[in-house]
Amino acid sequence: MRWPIQLARRSDVRHCISKPAMSVTVPLGRRDLGDEPYRAIAYERAVVVVPAHNEVANLPRCLNALVTAAACFPAPTLTVVVLDDCDDESTRLAGRFGSDVHFIEVEARNVGAARAAGFVYSRTVCAVAASAQHRVWYATTDADSRVDADWLVRQTDSGADMVLGVVRVENWQQTPAGVVRRYLSRYRAKRKPDGHGHVHGANMGFRADKYWKEGGFAAIGSGEDVDLAQRFEQRSYRIHRDDGLSVETSARRVGRAPEGFAAYLRSFSRREGVG
């Protein structure tokens, strides 16, 4: 594992650690999370991790959207871009998105390991006492995705231990109409009793203390998001499946994870007899 391309300047690290922390208070109340009321949580910090392998073309849009989401979130937010075995020009983007967006390098070629490395790195930069981990919110998205401005606010407003959102495809122009229809029909039909039935690493968030208690993301090449969600379910943590929490993603047919979203889209093409 390699550590940062460009660690933030010393003044930037100080800024990350000591920036006055406003908090997001989740009110006492009830949602679709069961019969028991949830307790108020004052989030004092957020961390967003973005794994990337040769994503120089997509990262600027992704990061501009995350900078906006961080500006809308009333607590300090650190974004960690994990460049995983990149040989494109991604490293040249370091430093262009402000002092709260850090780039690090790893050589894993493994999306689970890359996501995990981002959260490990965040602990070395933003000092948070173990007793305060429950007031830190973690979120993750993908380099070919773009979050909405209220992404972090909506996640933390749920009062849940984990929030799972959905994705919307940015542009179907290169995809046959039959493939689009099959995909949308299947996607909308996948339901669970408590909401939609999807798990996307491009659109999920969770409490830091629960994440570390469950051992974090596993170093697996695909399905690391589903694996983490299943471990949260097994512990009966509160999981909020939010149909209205949507992230824009690409319809590319060649992705980075062997069995990720791009592979899922390709499966519909095969059924239609498309290449």
Automatic annotation (TrEMBL):
Q: What does this protein do?
A: Catalyzes the glycosylation of 4,4'-diaponeurosporenoate, i.e. the esterification of glucose at the C1'' position with the carboxyl group of 4,4'-diaponeurosporenic acid, to form glycosyl-4,4'-diaponeurosporenoate. This is a step in the biosynthesis of staphyloxanthin, an orange pigment present in most staphylococci strains.
**From which source organism is this entry?**
Mycobacteroides salmoniphilum
Primary subcellular site in the record, as a coarse category? membrane
Q: In which pathway is this protein known to take part?
A: Carotenoid biosynthesis; staphyloxanthin biosynthesis; staphyloxanthin from farnesyl diphosphate: step 4/5
Q: Which UniProt keywords apply?
A: Cell membrane, Glycosyltransferase, Membrane, Transferase
Signal peptide boundaries: none
What GO MF terms are annotated? Answer: glycosyltransferase activity
Q: Which GO terms describe its cellular component?
A: plasma membrane
Family designation:
Belongs to the glycosyltransferase 2 family. CrtQ subfamily.
Q: Where in the cell is it found?
A: Cell membrane
Where does this protein have coiled-coil stretches? Answer: none
Residue ranges constituting the Glycosyltransferase 2-like domain according to the UniProt record: 48-213
Protein name, UniProt field: 4,4'-diaponeurosporenoate glycosyltransferase
